[in-house]
Design a protein that fits this description.
Strand order of the largest sheet: 1-10-9-6-2-3-5
CATH topology: Rossmann fold
Number of strands: 10
Structural class: alpha/beta
CATH class: Alpha Beta
Number of domains: 1
Oligomer: single chain
Shape: globular
CATH architecture: 3-Layer(aba) Sandwich
Length: 263
């Protein structure tokens, strides 16, 4: 796992966007995994700026969202179909026909999960999966004690996750109880993982992910098992790490060809 520590949230967004843009430049028809939540918003904004000024063309890119609430109408402002449209599809100039989101409105969520797995496979798999991390260590909606072998499926949201997401809804009672999410096994199948985190509120989860044991109590610790996982965090999110000096030493002495070029 490569750990990159930068000064602040803006620097996280710029560094992550540069890495994603470099991958798209190398493969214009790349398949991206896209996350929702607050963590990746700055990254999408930094990518959109590159699209607007002509540095980046995403017109041939395909995208697969990590998850979706169960039971919300697709047009609900907090349904991830709608969030992805607002924050990813339109700002990055993606073809809507190439953007995929799990079907949380399906009457059979198990079948919908199996269908989503087939769609990812038919697209050739995910080239780069962008991730955030929940305060309890979840990635996607894989709550603590999710199986590392899990595939896209229905999950029950943890109380902390619903409380954290209540800021997007009128009240906690309006936050769905269930969701459909890519599994940890699905996420680990991506060729490259890129996780971004900002702020003191994520520091404990970040420390468990990077320096704790690989354990289902912290689903994000599964990134330790991936051959090409990068974590980009600001100093606040890094504040609970014990080996900050070592990670910064590695950054300073990284070979030039390991650092994504700006495009």
């Amino acid at each position: 796992m490569d750990v990159i520590i930068v000064e602040d949230a803006a620097a996280v967004a710029e560094r992550a966007a540069a890495q994603i843009a470099a991958r798209i430049a190398a493969k214009p028809n790349a398949v991206l995994g896209v996350a929702t939540g607050s963590s990746p918003v700055g990254t999408y904004e930094a990518l959109a700026a590159r699209v607007r000024d002509g540095r980046l063309d995403c017109s041939a890119v395909s995208a697969f969202a990590l998850d979706e609430y169960a039971g919300l109408p697709l047009t609900h402002p907090e349904a991830y179909h709608e969030v992805i449209r607002r924050t990813v599809t339109e700002p990055l100039g993606l073809d809507p026909a190439r953007v995929n989101v799990p079907d949380g409105s399906a009457s059979d969520l198990a079948a919908a999960g199996e269908d989503y797995e087939r769609r990812i496979a038919a697209a050739g798999g995910v080239d780069l999966q962008l991730l955030g991390i929940g305060a309890n260590g979840h990635i996607g909606f894989n709550e603590p004690c999710s199986s590392f072998a899990s595939r896209t499926r229905m999950k029950t949201l943890a109380p902390q996750t619903r409380e954290d997401n209540a800021r997007f809804f009128a009240s906690l009672d309006d936050v769905p109880l269930h969701c459909i999410t890519q599994g940890l096994g699905t996420i680990l199948d991506a060729r490259e993982l890129l996780l971004v985190a900002q702020g003191e509120g994520k520091a404990e989860a970040v420390a468990a992910m990077i320096e704790g044991p690989v354990a289902s109590i912290c689903p994000a610790s599964a990134l330790q098992l991936h051959a090409r996982a990068t974590v980009i965090i600001d100093r606040a999110a890094a504040s609970r790490l014990r080996l900050v000096d070592y990670y910064e030493h590695v950054q300073r002495h990284q070979p030039a060809n390991r650092i994504p070029a700006e495009v």
